[in-house]
Design goal:
The protein is an alpha/beta fold. It has seven helices and six strands; from the N terminus they run βαβαααβαβαββα. Helix 2 packs across helix 3, helix 3 runs antiparallel to helix 4 and helix 4 packs parallel to helix 5. This is Adenylate kinase 4, mitochondrial.
Length: about 180
């Protein structure tokens, strides 16, 4: 029986998880699995978990663990015969434990980025909401300012990417990530 490689990249908002995951997945022939992509997909398909997730997101709340695991674990089961790299999951100890009940992780990478770098990246970050494409006004500009390169639709900046919300967001990340990091040490 072939051995499949299971990995995840952890890191605070703005640490570059998506960029790094895509590069690693491409270089090593892994399936790149983004929790953000699965959230958008579940919402667009109007799945039960997607509808639940949308109700939290619209209120500016984090999607609870049980909803995230209902979105992610069936996708991972479908890909059980593939090697993969996770981006954005698991974020909490409950999510990590649910994942560990299905799979043994081969590698978990934790990105440790200085606060000032995160602050700079996030304050310059603009997103195409429908696709999740990310632009940075410092080093990854859209071809037309304020517009997505693919669709031409407007880009947005999340309220929690603005400097005034960043400290609380990073503090929360540290609180929930520490047990996950400790689990995978």
């Amino acid at each position: 029986m072939a051995k499949f490689f299971r990995a995840a990249v952890l890191g605070p908002p703005g640490s570059g998880k998506g960029t790094i995951c895509k590069r690693i997945a491409h270089s090593f022939g892994l399936q790149y699995l983004s929790s953000g992509h699965f959230l958008r997909e579940g919402i667009a398909a109007d799945t039960e978990a997607g509808v639940l997730a949308k109700s939290y997101i619209e209120r500016g709340m984090l999607v609870p663990d049980q909803v995230m695991t209902r979105l992610m674990l069936p996708k991972l089961e479908q890909l059980r015969n593939h090697s993969w790299l996770l981006d954005g999951f698991p974020r909490t100890l409950a999510q990590a434990q649910a994942l560990n009940n299905l799979y043994q992780m081969d590698l978990v990478i934790n990105l440790n980025i200085p606060y000032e770098t995160l602050k700079e990246r996030l304050s310059d970050r603009w997103i195409h909401p429908a696709s999740g494409r990310v632009y940075n006004m410092g080093f990854n500009l859209p071809q037309v300012q304020g517009k997505d390169d693919v669709t031409g639709e407007p880009l947005i900046q999340h309220d929690d990417d603005k400097p005034e919300a960043l400290m609380a967001r990073l503090r929360h990340y540290k609180e929930v990530a520490k047990p996950v990091i400790d689990l995978y040490k």
